[in-house]
């Protein structure tokens, strides 16, 4: 089955003064539609850099990112903006919500950037917030919510424009263990129930093993051998059985 997303020889090097700092080195991987892929590794291993390159938030020093067979860099600035608005949805460790806006307004703003019709933004924002269990928190601001609730708003915002791929960068990093499990189960449910492709960066390997179909390990910016997770059927296997 063709990959929905593929990286080929992806590399990223930063310059600090006269010193070159390689962060990602020749990473090639494929992600099938409907797959839940976890990217694990120590701090500084290149996990977030990989996710930022896939999401079009940064540009590679070498190599390419392909979505449905198309090199996203070849689409120019306008194409990368469309990629960020509609093809991928982002969930960050620190939530990145606007403190002065309510849950409904935070999600509605994402819809505005996605060029969703103004007349339908409130309805769509409420719909997606209810789908993550926050129908009772529509008018609350981030400071009035628990960490788990704020992260659910962030997930709703990422889902607002119906992305093909959800990119989650340490989505449980600021949460206690119980709430981390709830957010991980939410992401797993989106993958199982909707067939949403998920790439999750985490340093919590046991959590990754519980929700992902595969684990990809990064060490000093290089890809280590991949693991298939027992107990989670591959999306391709589910389709063949249906």
C-alpha-based Rg, rounded: 18 Å
* Uncertain regions spanning at least 5 consecutive residues: none
CATH topology: Rossmann fold
CATH arch. level architecture:
3-Layer(aba) Sandwich
**DSSP summary, beta strand count:** 11
Portion of residues within helices: 25-40%
Between the first and last Cα atoms, what is the distance in angstroms? 16 Å
CATH superfamily grouping: P-loop containing nucleotide triphosphate hydrolases
Q: Main sheet, how many strands, which sense, barrel?
A: 7 strands, mixed
- Compressed to H and E, one letter per element, the order equals EEEHEEHEHHHEHEHEEEH
The total tally of domains equals: 1
Name the beta content range: 25-35%
| CATH class label | Alpha Beta
Secondary structure: elements and pairs:
Elements: E1 3-16, E2 19-32, E3 36-40, H1 47-54, E4 62-67, E5 70-71, H2 76-87, E6 88-92, H3 103-113, H4 121-131, H5 147-159, E7 165-169, H6 177-194, E8 197-202, H7 205-211, E9 214-219, E10 222-223, E11 227-228, H8 235-241
Parallel strand pairs: 3-8, 3-9, 6-7, 7-8
Antiparallel strand pairs: 1-2, 1-4, 4-5, 9-10, 9-11
3D structure, described in words:
The chain has 242 residues and is an alpha/beta fold. It has one domain (3-241): P-loop containing nucleotide triphosphate hydrolases (Rossmann fold, 3-Layer(aba) Sandwich). The protein has helices at residues 47-54, 76-87, 103-113, 121-131, 147-159, 177-194, 205-211, 235-241, and strands at 3-16, 19-32, 36-40, 62-67, 70-71, 88-92, 165-169, 197-202, 214-219, 222-223, 227-228. A hairpin with a 2-residue loop joins strand 4 (62-67) and strand 5. Helix 4 crosses helix 5. It starts with a strand and ends with a helix.
């Amino acid at each position: 089955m063709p990959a929905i997303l593929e990286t080929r020889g992806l590399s990223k090097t930063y310059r600090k003064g006269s010193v070159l700092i390689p962060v990602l080195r020749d990473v090639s991987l494929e992600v099938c539609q409907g797959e839940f892929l976890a990217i694990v590794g120590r701090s500084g291993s290149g996990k977030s850099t990989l996710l930022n390159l896939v999401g079009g938030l940064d540009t590679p020093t070498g190599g390419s990112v392909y979505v449905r067979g198309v090199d996203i860099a070849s689409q120019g600035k306008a194409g990368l903006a469309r990629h960020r608005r509609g093809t991928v949805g982002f969930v960050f460790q620190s939530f990145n919500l606007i403190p002065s806006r309510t849950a409904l307004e935070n999600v509605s703003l994402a819809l505005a950037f996605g060029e969703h019709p103004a007349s339908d933004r409130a309805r769509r924002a409420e719909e997606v917030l209810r789908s993550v269990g926050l129908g009772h928190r529509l008018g609350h601001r981030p400071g009035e919510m628990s960490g788990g609730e704020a992260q659910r708003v962030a997930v709703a915002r990422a889902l607002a424009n119906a992305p093909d791929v959800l990119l989650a960068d340490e989505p449980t990093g600021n949460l206690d263990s119980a709430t981390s499990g709830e957010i991980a189960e939410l992401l797993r449910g989106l993958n199982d129930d909707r067939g949403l492709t998920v790439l999750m960066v985490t340093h919590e390997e046991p959590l990754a093993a519980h929700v992902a179909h595969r684990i990809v390990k990064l060490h000093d910016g290089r890809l280590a051998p991949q693991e298939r997770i027992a107990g989670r059927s591959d999306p391709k296997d589910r389709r063949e059985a249906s």
